[in-house]
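Appendix B, example 12.
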Amino acid sequence: MNSNPNPPKCFHRFFRWYCHPRMRGYIEGDLIEVYERNFKTLGKRQADWKFILDVLLLFRPGIIRPRKPYQHLTPYGMYKSYFKIGWRSLLRNKEYTLINIAGLALSITCCILIFVLVKHHLGFDDFHPDKDRIYRVVTEQHRETVSYTNSVPSPLGMVLRENHTYGEKVARMFQEANAVISFERDGEKQLIKEPNGFAFTEAEFFDIFNFPLSKGNWESALTEPNTAIITERLAQKYFGDQNPIGEVITYDNFLPFTITGVLEDFPPNTDISPEIFVSYSTMKDFNPWLASDNAWGGINSGMYCFTKLRPGVSPVEVEEALAPYVKQHRPTSKNVHHYKLQALSDVHFDGRYGGAMEKSDIGILIAIGIFLLLTACVNFINLATAQALKRSKEVGVRKVLGSFRSQLFWQFIFETAIIATFSILIALIAAYALVPYVNNFFNTQIPVNFLVDGTLVLFILGLDILITLLAGCYPALILTGFKPVAALKGKLSFQQLGGFNTRRALIVVQFAISQVLIIGVIVIMNQMRFAKQADLGFDKSSIVMVKLGSDSLNTMNVLKNEFLRLPGIEKVSLCYQAPASDDSWNNSIRFGTDAEEVSFLTNMKLADADYISTFDLELLAGRNLMPSDTVREVLVNEAMLQSLGITSYEDALGEMVYANGGTMKGQVVGVVRNFHDRSLHERISAALITTASGMYSNFAIKINGNSVKDTLEEIQSLWEEQYPDKMFEYSFLDEDIAKFYEAEDTLLKGIQFFSFIAIFIGCLGLYGLISFMISQKAKEVGIRKVLGGGISHIVWLFGQEFVRLILIAFLIAAPIGWWFMSGWLQDFEFKITLDAWTFVVAIGSSLVIAALTVGYQVVKVAWLNPVISLKTE
């Protein structure tokens, strides 16, 4: 051996021929360790000889019988062999295995939750027969701007049914939300507030929608006045196990309904929210104007019209047929209606008409799921290729022993499949545990039935295959592409190990995604802080809105005076609503001597003379309202004067204002500073404040902030003395205003969560890259330290690589983040500006995260004794 240290090439060919028929597959014993031991004692070239001879001797007939080659195994035996080898390999590399499983399990958990969430929303109201022919009639209101409402004038449904034959079925429904329902149970009167309220409903509604009865029959369910049907859930809630048919429920202690039927509980994926349906003919007792056939003058929120079109009828035909009714019944109105048909499949996804979410939100959720999955697969690739050097000799041995590249390829694919399968099992357990939190977070009712959902099972199986191929193919191709001699000698180039450039590109993509999410979090947080701290033009702190219990003016005034006697109460006002409220009354007015109505809507704020002082509204000119029970005087805001083209406050004083078709008129006696009457999404409306006791529905009570709890108890006690049969309802104004931004708060929490996931997975990618770099530069670090290189010099040797990658990622992420968040801010009329600090914080956060991720490993290798890294040289 020593006389001829260079084995001839023909010997290699002979060796491969000798091993080919018998040695394909793997062998027992760790030949790599044998080779490395000989390498240390004999040197490179002699070790090559010794290793080959050891293999020949080891497998001579009669010494050890080799395993059956792969081509002689059954498919089951071959896959079993693949599994055993992969399992052993993963156990030998526990850190690598755990990191990959953690990253994949985290991203798969998010993917499963996103899938069930998207599936839930896409399935809304898809269980109705002929759902493609069901439409809701909605209204576009054209004035200075176009506004959208899901309601219509109440006579429109009657006209569509009686004057046209387009609809196979037409039904009207008026929903009254936040209804207080009373009933008797076990001889005692019960009061329950139903947030979804009840709905006056025409019987044809249940011919359009598939909501079957479990008790009663449709022939008598809603045919008579003052009858109602309720869901099984409410029947159990109100009456327990007793039969609810014939029982009486009462709305607000004045409108009774006899139950004539019980509906099966609604599925969670429907936008039909009320669970109490009452006969439409009873609405004349609730609101005579709304129930009349001539109520074309305005649109009352909650009045809906549904139709199931006949086969072959186009929605455009119906819209054209409804157009003439606008001029016929609203000839002089500046608020021009356009009645449109909205497909049932669009009801859930059209935010203009009150849809729960936009279709673009579905796309964003899907994109986030794809990004997280790709990020996890990128990490897998980084870590797998970083392990390539450790496994190169194993590949070399297998190839020398006759294994085909395809066999090695599937071996590594099986290892990936094992990791992916374990990750999915962990993800399923995590997703199952997290579904209740997702339901609470997104206000959904996603059922926890993963194993019986065939679509989800197919999705998970497909996800397993996709991850295995995405994450496993590239590392498998890299690992199986090694040349045996180079692999056994450890002389593999960076390119053969997967290359730095590919790894750099993947890390840049990960950091770019993370930085875009960080920019989004910063912008949304700043906008939410701005919205909650902005000067709204009125005082919202320590103000409690208490619902009135009676329309009696004398009772209201008596209770108001009783409240003012309490030491914890500073001021009290009777009003329709607070200055900023979702519940507003928009009206058309005439100003001064003008014969025609103005072209803009006016937000009517109906309140007594204490409204200004209670909410600390600022008078810019004139005086406050004089106490009155009817409309005599009005206050207007700056936005009203701007819309009228009046530049001087004094010019407006003394002018007459005519509202509600001229039935409400008063003289302008003062001008108040602009106040935000809605969220910061919308511009400040032209507003009018006047007295009208018949329209008051709330007490606005300014309380002393030092005794809130005691004062509330005293308020409730006084209120219940006046209204013993009513339910006491109150809310804090600042909390009501905060609800304007519930969607944004949910979005912020969602982006924060997904940002954390993306950053965490990105950190795993950094771990893979630094592992690869350290394995390749260990000897270089030792040489630099021997030549006098300091710790800081060694740290910067690695750190500069990541700084460059983060800067490149920032150059990609900054314009993308700016573009996305600029578009998001366009939904706000009042908003922050995107400044440089947003982007400075984003890149600074990335640098800190990167430093924390790789710092330990870099410092560890920088402190390593150079003798250890150079001892094999």
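Residues 203 and 218 are 8 Å apart (CA to CA). The first helix runs from residue 9 to 23.
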